[in-house]
Amino acid sequence: MNAKIVTAGLLVIGDEILSGRTKDVNINATAQFCTDLGIELSEVRVVPDVIDTIVEAVNALRKRYTYVFTTGGIGPTHDDITADAIARAFGVALPIHPVAREMLESRWKESGTEVTAARLRMARIPEGADLVVNAVSAAPGFRIANVYVMAGVPVIMKAMLEAIAPTLEGGRKVESRSVSAGVGEGALGDPLAEIQSRYDDVKIGSYPQMGYGHIMTYLVLRSHDIARLDTATAEVQALVDKIHRDKNITLPEEAKP
Amino acid sequence: MNAKIVTAGLLVIGDEILSGRTKDVNINATAQFCTDLGIELSEVRVVPDVIDTIVEAVNALRKRYTYVFTTGGIGPTHDDITADAIARAFGVALPIHPVAREMLESRWKESGTEVTAARLRMARIPEGADLVVNAVSAAPGFRIANVYVMAGVPVIMKAMLEAIAPTLEGGRKVESRSVSAGVGEGALGDPLAEIQSRYDDVKIGSYPQMGYGHIMTYLVLRSHDIARLDTATAEVQALVDKIHRDKNITLPEEAKP
């Protein structure tokens, strides 16, 4: 069993997210991707298209986490400055990469697209980086050290995550269990805190929600240690069963996890 | 005319966002809220329910921006530790606030809800903070110095933003204009960069998208200075018109901004 905890930071780059013009979907996609691989997504930052800000954020995150994923800012226009920022963060040059250029030119040939200086911006790759292929639009992302630079367009971001998945080291997978309670959080707080205090290796999250005509709380337990997780879950289930009996609450079958 | 640039940082607190279990919607809601008030949302961070991490992020953001908004972690359960983190970040105590307690108890009386230690956690407010009212569930948020601490439940977060809006100083409103081009970003890059180079007070963003049967690029220009914005927009529109003529592209009326 792999005992290593593998962490990641995500950097979302783009004015359009911060202005509210675009609703981000890459945070959730990356979060689910990490969870599936047993990687703990530990932090997300969203920053504007400002080179110094991107450099600072990349340098902070890459020292702190096993992996850093970036999304956005690798297209052909002047506001696409992620490659420039990454090259500066690592103190390396940003030449045209011959293989990236080939990938792009062969796609452009197919579609009769003219080669322009703007389009060739997409072939600029920091020195020493490996390419991350992009089957959707041919413009590659890249990896330098522990930083993976990917596209902001959600379908391309997803394809790039799938492309890098086999190269990532997964950690101990976090397993989860859930318990549904037909009461609000306030009815659970004290005894739940008592259970949590005895399980520092199990994280118990509590998520109130409306459902089935009344307030519900979904309790989600997460741990690397399945035996401890199951014992803690049994305790939480017993607590919820007791509350349901005391308050004469019967949950419909479909409300159970 | 108010010449001040007013900035904000947003801190989203919650394991459920980082694990992918919950899709965040508060980032976009806050971004739109800021844009409407002329506040520039400059950075977003998403952090887990870990007290030291929250303290560090709050301290970093509150020094950097005019306002900091936080969302999440102010409920009644053990994993709701935002108030604790804020009190620690400011080095102040976290007593039960008499007015917050009254708000909660009067709501609980109406609904026949028992007062428990867990529920009273929601009345703990850092010393020196003002309350932010919550019409939805009565549990208040609070403001301490330039940090506004609000709920994670989206409908309550929105209500709290509306509640604080009149107390916030708006900046010079950023106006925006858009131009639709019936070509990909690559066809625009070089001449667009040339226009951008002459307008350092206008930000030109470029957003490719599929639409009307072919690739489209939406160009969004943003500036505090309306006269400059309109001149730059006219230049971009003229560039796009020329490309459309050269390539014999006619956009349908509904594709125009």
From TrEMBL, chains A, B:
<dbReference type="Pfam" id="PF24102">
    <property type="entry name" value="FLAD1_M"/>
</dbReference>
<dbReference type="InterPro" id="IPR056596">
    <property type="entry name" value="FLAD1_M"/>
</dbReference>
<feature type="domain" description="MoaB/Mog">
    <location>
        <begin position="9"/>
        <end position="171"/>
    </location>
</feature>
<dbReference type="InterPro" id="IPR036425">
    <property type="entry name" value="MoaB/Mog-like_dom_sf"/>
</dbReference>
<dbReference type="InterPro" id="IPR001453">
    <property type="entry name" value="MoaB/Mog_dom"/>
</dbReference>
<dbReference type="Pfam" id="PF00994">
    <property type="entry name" value="MoCF_biosynth"/>
</dbReference>
<dbReference type="InterPro" id="IPR050101">
    <property type="entry name" value="CinA"/>
</dbReference>
<protein>
    <submittedName>
        <fullName>Molybdenum cofactor biosynthesis protein</fullName>
    </submittedName>
</protein>
